[in-house]
């Protein structure tokens, strides 16, 4: 028997995510004065497992409904989730499919990846499925061939997704260890725990050995409370003074830019001591591919960005970003775009152009900066016209912001899409002062 009742904090969220209500839609509902009602069994203890299984999207249609109920940062992310459901529906069990969709939700939410070829995502998720199901015949090479993409692209995307796999597993382990009082931990999809935990323990045994400080960091990353995040990060520092992410988390919440810069710098210093000189020498060239480097790299990114765009310490910011690209030329963090801007601010135009030509990609940053550099080097000149034409062809949304005919939004975009307005906004955020200081260029653009 069941009756209508208010959804409890520890009940499965009505949206179908599989997470507890308190860790999913509760805060949003409270902000909107919404009270959720659901069916509550009169024999809750006897039917606990049966009730939980009912929230797992079993059929293809239920998974579509589950996807549509989620909040996605972009339409492209939602579409990819729906396509994953299509690609996997005939070959995998419902629990396996929803696990992959959940992984995509986590990854797209936390990292806002730029997706130029969705097939790379499908291939990578197929490879992850092979790991989760223990199917050794599913390799990066086989999925790359299946989806007509390169093995390198699958490898790089998988490395990018690894922290999201980390996050899912760590939260599952934390939830098990704190069953009596789990308010501080996300209750992540119990139906996937056995598959994910067993396969990921085999794939990366060190996942099961998270230090007490790392567990506090994982917990801090899940809270929306700035006060609690700071408290947990400080507790982590007390246990491990050389954990860069503890400094990063505190710095992210500070309004005082100078203090934030100091904390990021301490995070960098801690990371260097933690990893050791030999580690840097041996792993230079593919740094980001090693999970243990990422807290250090995040500290570098935060410090470099503050130096370059807030403190106007251009040389220091450029130095930081040059080292980051030296450590990881594949540039999984998009440092090349910031470094190009840094070179322009230092009037090191040949270096900026060399970096643009080295990566040789068509994007707003590179295309409009080619135009900007041409003007800054030679003033208004004939070579600007084809550069301007190329820039507009790739992203026409930048020009209205430069000319002032369109106002910038109050908040930066949650995700950036190649060639669309979000990319234009991201470009102007970092380059508006350069155009403001170049009125003749802006005038020329308005007439061209």
From TrEMBL:
InterPro entries: SEC_C_motif, TPR-like_helical_dom_sf. Gene3D superfamilies: 3.10.450.50, Tetratricopeptide repeat domain. It holds the Pfam family SEC-C. SUPFAM superfamilies: HCP-like, Sec-C motif. This is HTH psq-type domain-containing protein.
């Amino acid at each position: 028997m069941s009756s209508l009742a208010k959804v409890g904090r520890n009940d499965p969220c009505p949206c179908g995510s599989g997470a507890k209500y308190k860790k999913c839609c509760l805060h949003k509902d409270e902000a909107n004065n919404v009270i959720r009602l659901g069916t509550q069994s009169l024999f809750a203890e006897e039917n606990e497992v049966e009730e939980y299984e009912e929230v797992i999207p079993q059929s293809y249609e239920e998974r579509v409904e589950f996807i549509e109920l989620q909040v996605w940062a972009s339409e492209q992310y939602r579409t990819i989730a729906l396509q994953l459901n299509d690609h996997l529906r005939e070959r995998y069990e419902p629990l396996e499919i929803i696990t992959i969709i959940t992984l995509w939700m986590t990854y797209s939410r936390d990292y806002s990846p730029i997706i130029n070829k969705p097939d790379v995502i499908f291939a990578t998720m197929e490879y992850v499925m092979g790991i989760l199901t223990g199917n050794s015949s599913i390799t990066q090479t086989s999925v790359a061939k299946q989806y007509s993409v390169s093995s390198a692209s699958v490898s790089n995307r998988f490395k990018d997704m690894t922290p999201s796999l980390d996050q899912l597993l760590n939260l599952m382990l934390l939830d098990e260890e704190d069953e009596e009082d789990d308010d501080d931990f996300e209750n992540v999809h119990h139906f996937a725990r056995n598959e994910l935990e067993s396969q990921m323990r085999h794939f990366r045994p060190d996942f099961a050995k998270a230090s007490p400080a790392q567990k506090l960091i994982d917990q801090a990353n899940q809270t929306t409370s700035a006060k609690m995040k700071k408290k947990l990060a400080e507790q982590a520092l007390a246990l491990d003074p050389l954990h860069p992410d503890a400094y990063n988390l505190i710095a992210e919440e500070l309004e005082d830019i100078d203090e934030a810069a100091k904390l990021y710098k301490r995070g960098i210093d801690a990371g260097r001591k933690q990893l050791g000189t030999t580690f840097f020498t041996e792993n230079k060239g593919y740094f980001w591919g090693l999970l243990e480097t990422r807290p250090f790299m995040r500290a570098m990114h935060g410090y470099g960005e503050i130096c370059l765009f807030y403190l106007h310490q251009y040389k220091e910011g450029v130095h930081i970003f040059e080292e980051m690209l030296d450590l990881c030329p594949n540039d999984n963090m998009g440092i090349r775009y910031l470094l190009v801007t840094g070179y322009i601010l230092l009037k090191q135009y040949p270096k900026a152009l060399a970096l643009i030509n080295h990566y040789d990609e068509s994007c707003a940053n590179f295309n409009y900066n080619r135009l900007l550099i041409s003007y800054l080097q030679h003033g208004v000149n004939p070579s600007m016209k084809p550069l301007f034409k190329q820039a507009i062809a790739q992203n026409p949304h930048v020009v209205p912001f430069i000319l002032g005919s369109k106002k910038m939004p109050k908040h930066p975009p949650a995700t950036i899409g190649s060639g669309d307005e979000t990319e234009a906004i991201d470009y102007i955020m970092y380059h508006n002062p350069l155009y403001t200081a170049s009125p003749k260029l802006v005038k020329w653009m308005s007439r061209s």
